[in-house]
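Table S5 (text form). Sequence records supplied for joint modeling of the two-component complex.
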Amino acid sequence: MALSDLRGVERNEAGIEAALGILKQRFGERFQTGMAIRGQHAHTTTYIPTQAPDGVAFPESGEEVQEIVKVCAEHRVPVIAFGVGSSLEGHVNAPGGGISLDTSRMNRVLAVNAEDLDCTVEPGVTREDLNAYLRDTGLFFPIDPGANASLGGMAATRASGTNAVRYGTMRENVLALQAVMADGSMVTTARRAKKSSAGYDLTRLLIGSEGTLGIITSLTLKLYGIPQAISGGVCPFPSVETACQAVIATIQMGIPVARIELVNQLQMRALKNYSKLDYPESPCLFVEFHGSDAGVAEQAETFGEIAAEYGGGPFLWTSVAEERTKLWKARHDAYWASLTLRPGAKGLSTDVCVPISRLAECIAETEADIAEMGLIAPIVGHVGDGNFHTLVLMDVDSPEEIALAEKFVSRLNMRAIAMEGTCTGEHGIGQGKMGFLEHELGHGVDIMRTIKAALDPQNILNPGKILPAA
Amino acid sequence: MALSDLRGVERNEAGIEAALGILKQRFGERFQTGMAIRGQHAHTTTYIPTQAPDGVAFPESGEEVQEIVKVCAEHRVPVIAFGVGSSLEGHVNAPGGGISLDTSRMNRVLAVNAEDLDCTVEPGVTREDLNAYLRDTGLFFPIDPGANASLGGMAATRASGTNAVRYGTMRENVLALQAVMADGSMVTTARRAKKSSAGYDLTRLLIGSEGTLGIITSLTLKLYGIPQAISGGVCPFPSVETACQAVIATIQMGIPVARIELVNQLQMRALKNYSKLDYPESPCLFVEFHGSDAGVAEQAETFGEIAAEYGGGPFLWTSVAEERTKLWKARHDAYWASLTLRPGAKGLSTDVCVPISRLAECIAETEADIAEMGLIAPIVGHVGDGNFHTLVLMDVDSPEEIALAEKFVSRLNMRAIAMEGTCTGEHGIGQGKMGFLEHELGHGVDIMRTIKAALDPQNILNPGKILPAA
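The corresponding structure-token record, covering 940 residues in total, follows.
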């Protein structure tokens, strides 16, 4: 399980010392070695203990990233790319020390091609920054993992979120990347065409590689026209199972639902208390439709009929922006509302994803496990994709509670894998889920190791992540 | 250019002889060495000269594929996966001889999971076979490259076609693959969950790798509900440019067009003559919409209004299946109609893809080039993606004509690349486009070579394809 799998990466003290000297001289104030800043660059929204880097560099261009990687390559020192630190599985820890490469100063939107529905950005641009920048164009970038993550980090972890059911994940929404490889060379993975059959898919190879194969220095992203109309609402169901059946029917009907989120009973209780809204205290689906005025109304009505067939309802929905925002507020507040279930506790957020036909069963078994283990752990899910999250509320200073939470996560991951699913739908492997990757993909992990060894023979790019020791 | 880049792959005579003996003994009648059958397995729908393999194996399972690859690995003999032979760029040629691995007996649908909208098939199942199999389920697999290609071959070349604008390409529609690697080991690239952030994207690495990294032995594919209603029609435009502007506006509006095909003036002339239908002799868009009854009517009406704004029309459309089929007949007959433009000639089919904002310019320059070079070469395009095809009609027995066609293709590829596009949107690199890959991706090709060398150190999987000599 997670903590016990934190691999030691041997420290190369002499190399680190040499690299620190060179980078300090070259980057001056843009290279920091203070304890606080180093700690901030390792400690993210995770319970995994902090393993700080030895220094933090703030490059301002792809060329500067190349310089840093070349210094680290010459001295065999780890380089760990850092976006905003919202990752959840220890992705930015530095188990062998080394340099954190903070992309926050690489935050320019380089081009917006409205006719082509694409844009090119530096990796430190966050998704909210990008959408603010696009506001006057009538376009938007849909992927929404919750946190205001950097787009480079979102690509590196193959992030997705609530509207992946309609718009896909980062995998489907990156047209091309520019990245610095382990030898300091710069590669452009693809051109700006919507599709291509020209050679190996280097774009997708880097997406989800968590900074272990290359450091992303620019991204060309797909954009979408802001829909003419949006309708959305909330629909209670007698059970998780009936809610899941309604989701399956909705998707099979071909209704192009933009978001369809399951909130379980415990989470609804937390939301009611937190939001002071008159929600029912039973499992609910929060749904949203994008399209023409007539289209979104038709979709909402059809969904309401499907929900009723499965005993759900009443389905309260609206196309009026303010009312929709109010209806959806609860879903957006889920994280903060959850914390009120156990004041003072912190949350361990974990995610799995299973074929949608197994979703109800997987959630039911997980709820039973939560009850049996005496945990407080509400569930929310991007159920159109079969993806759900559990937030285990725990005292992170209690080794017993951490051990129990890890046992729960382990059982959850193995349950998802046994149901033909994955141990992570969108959070990534990092350090936290390394122990499950071979259970999930077997010999595939050997292929990954072969690729890693070929492209980063010195193992300097984010070492000790994704790939468990062979 | 193409022919001059056909790389010699050194023949390993002793190894080939040994492998032939072993495979003949093991597979009996399912291993063929007759000249005719060997020639059929190299000669595909291309003008590139045939380079026949030394034998053709017909495995019936993944385990048998492993056996064949292990024999070839032991004796360092090329293995070339073969689907139905509809590829266009010499993908199945055997420049260093070796074994053609014909997947036609691996043609079982292994599972259909209707609730999950997915299925698992063997690689020799063709897309028409699959859709026939699915007929009673209300589901379909949308990717349509024109030919009745095998699904293994479609994944291997990252195929797409007319409705990629709505449903994506093979890249977006394969959930997982099982493949035999160069050492004969079997890998499963992913599980059946709709999305995953678990490690490197081996699925996408194999898709488009044209059999050079692994041989696909099963595919898990996304399926879709057959739409409640389909509307479609034909709309003439005064010029290619106005047609392209209408396409851009349609997509920016967020109209979920399922197909949007450009047919240029010369192609329309051929179609009129061939189909005896009363089409206008000007550039046309053929469009199709999928959705609810009300939805497809609304979409067709909105598209008609957009077309009119750009001087197009009248837009003749219908939701009645027979009438729609008749309107679309011309588009489906394009290949055969084209051949009537020069009786006795054969067609060299080539494709490029550019950002849609450059599409009109790219087609205009290409039409001018065709006129200047005195070629007969109609154009059709999957213009929603910026992808178009040119069919150069030529006498394949004339070296001068071949040289001229190659010059044209070279100029077309370099033009697309100069416009931030790709030398192939959906046909792949094979042998025919190797000369352009470095122009398009530069150092990216070195990364591809590193991956190829790591995963296939003996270079036995489809050698002499995709990667130009370093």
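Note: Chain A touches chain B through 97 residues (CB under 8 Å).
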